[in-house]
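[SOLVED] Predicted holo structure with fe (ii) ion

Edit: marking solved, answer below. Original request kept for reference. I posted the sequence and ligand SMILES and asked for the 3D complex as structure tokens.
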Amino acid sequence: MSFRQVRREILEEHCALRLGLANVEALCNRLEHGDERSAHALVNCGRALYERFAAHLVHEDQILISALGVVAGRAIAEKRSAEHREQRELLEYLLGRLDRPGYPALLLARELRHFAELVREDMQEEEEFLLRRDRPVRSLDSVKEAPIK
Ligand SMILES: [Fe+2]
Ligand SMILES: [Fe+2]
């Protein structure tokens, strides 16, 4: 796999995540404007967004972290790997809150808005810095290094 392929796969997932963010934010708007029927859909869309982001982290850990170790240096790869660990902890916490019976929908909407902001910033940083187009596009297969934790 080349770094170009890694970039393409990650950008496709970011695109799908942005659609999920837009769906969730549209539901937040409806709920905040008094449409209480949106509460159930918001829980489902929120859960789907959290799960999609969790799957994205797994995929990035599989293909992006080791690639970064090669094209950007081990320190940058390890930093991003640590950030993914923190993001997984946050997701676990947020998913746990979704399962609370009677959890207020407006509170959930506020949490999802903060989460959406965080995910947008995260993707922008990855795209502008980690996935920069001037990174080398050579194959990454030949590089054998100790795994990045
Ligand atoms: Fe990431
Ligand atoms: Fe990402």
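OP edit: The helical segments are 3-32, 38-71, 74-98, 105-130. Thanks to everyone who chimed in.
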